[in-house]
């Protein structure tokens, strides 16, 4: 087993424990992956609790989502990870989490518009709070290939996108490293709580 | 003492610590049980703080709720546990927790209707977010045998039910194992917080 | 140093750490005491952070609030502790905490009325959720002897009272032991969060 | 390396861990400093996660904000720290945090007015809850020298100020020691949550 695989697995286990402490990975929701090389990735296997992952909670898969380990099945949503790695060789990590705010906002809004928040600078290429960040929301579907194709087409048309929500289902975001992607999750969850509180005060 | 009893007790102690960290077992509220065999169960004894349980916080009781250990009294709500084990030999664990959301929603609603949430798939037999889950709410009562009979009749009529609330009093859910039932609690508490936030935004 | 003093001090230190983890003792607010004997008590000294107490954060004082240790000054609110110990020899602990909900509710309401909550059974003498619990709210004052006299007169007239709030200033409750009083705090903070959420939903 | 530097660094690392546990330093937001002497300070370096700081996350800089360590760049907002140390030789610590409440309130209000809260006594010179504390809110800007000059002019005109907010960007406060400044943060975050809940109830 390579050092890289072992290191990435440790980073994803720690990420899961942090998310669990925040309530962002309830029950067996959510899934995490990290790129291993040009053609393969490490991804959480199906049905794991993401706050209590151990070394056995992962498998290697190729970028078509085919398991490279006999007897282990990747997460049902693997296609939403592989679509990102195939789009962009610079992407090294994809994290899907499932917070209350991501869920509720995705059921109330058509998209999440972020403007005027200093924390927007946590995203690559954003230099000022005066920028405007759009987080699209896709309808939920159990047809993952169709959903992945829809995401892919949207990202072709909107290449600056840093994350998206699936309605009633949570957040997907990505980055060059696990640490990068964690920073995106922290910034987005912070912003979602701000947006929720703003919505309440607006009513 | 059997290995099974020791393992189940450890799992229930850990469950209580997790619930306490979330504020779901305030004061000496809540009670937990796990099936030991065809005719007996392990249940928390009366008056314990469920976040600081130790080995002495439990007793063996039969499925009529009679203590099998001299000098130890089972929880006052034992009848709500035994009714589940008698109904269904596949049930291996019953957990009653007492969160703010379970309490407040049970005092505002006639029933909790869950629809459109991906997390609903945490429950057995639910394959899609398009399903519709109904959590009934029973009036609170200090007459536990009467309440148990009411629950039993409701479950006969609605066998797909995964959990219920007692008004002002919290949540009961069950599963084949402690881990299973924990997953239900996590999913339900997540959903209750979503429902609470939706209610606030709806006003 | 007596074993009792050492044990009580340890219990109050642990209570402070728990309260701090919940955000109920911000900055140097709050103060804790426990009865040592018929004529003396242990109380937190002035200006301590109650979440990071050590053995030096306490002093012995008599039930008129006079320090029994040279060079150590008891909390400015000592008179609200001694009035309780003088009233009732069965009282073994008085805890004052300072949560957001205790603060906000005390500034919005004339009194907190609790009815229909199962958790009310955490209080001595309460056997059913059908009881009705009244938590009075006193105007804040920097004149502690006057405030203590007002509390004393109220408790004479309403001996079933289990706790009170001071407006903008937090909660006082008491019990026979530290564990007892901790149970009251947990139950009350749970109920205050319920009341806050009910108020929001009522608007 | 001096004992003072080592001690202060340890205090700021611990402060960051505490803030992170509360969600007040999301992503790589926030920055912390402490005075080392008449002419220099310790400050977090650019781009660090403030909840996971280690010894390498800091650098020495002079009070014009010039790094005294080759290859290390101070935080982009260094000028908001140095302006305070230059104003007042008694200031020993400046902390900038970035909570949801500080962010949301700064985007909804012209200033935060605090009155009637006992916790106001956590600030130097405040002896009673009857005082009135004003926390000004400055428009956000990426031009830090201009923002620092604006803060400086405000503080000249309002020397009793204990903290300020930058719109959409968080809180700045200061004190004679790290412990002092931590107490201010805890008190202010407590008060911001109170103000947010009051605003919601007012609507």
UniProtKB/TrEMBL annotation, chains A, B, C, D:
Q: Which GO terms describe its molecular function?
A: methylthioribulose 1-phosphate dehydratase activity
Can you state which reaction this protein catalyses?
5-(methylsulfanyl)-D-ribulose 1-phosphate = 5-methylsulfanyl-2,3-dioxopentyl phosphate + H2O
Q: Which cofactor does it need?
A: Zn(2+)
Residues annotated for Zn(2+) binding in this entry: 96, 98
Residues forming the Class II aldolase/adducin N-terminal domain are 10-196
The record describes how the cofactor is bound as: Binds 1 zinc ion per subunit.
Q: Name one Pfam family in it.
A: Aldolase_II
Note the superkingdom of the native organism.
Bacteria
Describe which pathway this protein belongs to, using the record's wording: Amino-acid biosynthesis; L-methionine biosynthesis via salvage pathway; L-methionine from S-methyl-5-thio-alpha-D-ribose 1-phosphate: step 2/6
Q: Which InterPro entries match?
A: Aldolase_II/adducin_N, Aldolase_II/adducin_N_sf, MethylthioRu-1-P_deHdtase_MtnB
Per UniProt, the enzyme's principal EC class comes to lyase
Q: What keywords would UniProt list here?
A: Amino-acid biosynthesis, Lyase, Metal-binding, Methionine biosynthesis, Zinc
* EC number of the protein: 4.2.1.109
- What's its job? Catalyzes the dehydration of methylthioribulose-1-phosphate (MTRu-1-P) into 2,3-diketo-5-methylthiopentyl-1-phosphate (DK-MTP-1-P).
Q: Which family does it belong to?
A: Belongs to the aldolase class II family. MtnB subfamily.
Q: What is this protein called?
A: Methylthioribulose-1-phosphate dehydratase
Q: Which organism is it from?
A: Thiothrix lacustris
Task: Provide the taxonomic classification.
Answer: Bacteria, Pseudomonadati, Pseudomonadota, Gammaproteobacteria, Thiotrichales
């Amino acid at each position: 087993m390579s050092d890289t695989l072992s290191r990435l697995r440790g980073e994803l286990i720690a990420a899961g424990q942090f998310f669990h402490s925040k309530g962002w990975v309830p029950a067996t929701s959510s899934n995490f992956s990290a790129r291993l090389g040009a053609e393969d990735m490490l991804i959480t296997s199906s049905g794991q609790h993401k706050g209590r992952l151990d070394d056995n909670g992962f498998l290697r898969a190729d970028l078509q989502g085919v398991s490279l380990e006999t007897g282990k099945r990747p997460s049902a949503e693997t296609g939403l990870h592989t679509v990102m790695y195939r789009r962009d060789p610079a992407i090294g990590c994809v994290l899907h989490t499932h917070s209350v705010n991501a869920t509720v906002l995705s059921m109330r809004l058509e998209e999440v518009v972020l403007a005027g928040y200093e924390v927007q600078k946590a995203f690559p290429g954003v230099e000022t709070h005066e920028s405007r960040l759009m987080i699209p929301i896709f309808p939920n579907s159990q047809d993952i290939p169709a959903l992945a194709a829809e995401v892919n087409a949207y990202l072709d048309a909107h290449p600056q996108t840093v994350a998206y929500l699936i309605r009633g289902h949570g957040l997907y975001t990505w980055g060059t490293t696990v640490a990068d992607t964690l920073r995106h999750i922290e910034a987005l969850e912070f912003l979602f709580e701000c947006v929720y509180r703003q919505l309440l005060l607006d009513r």
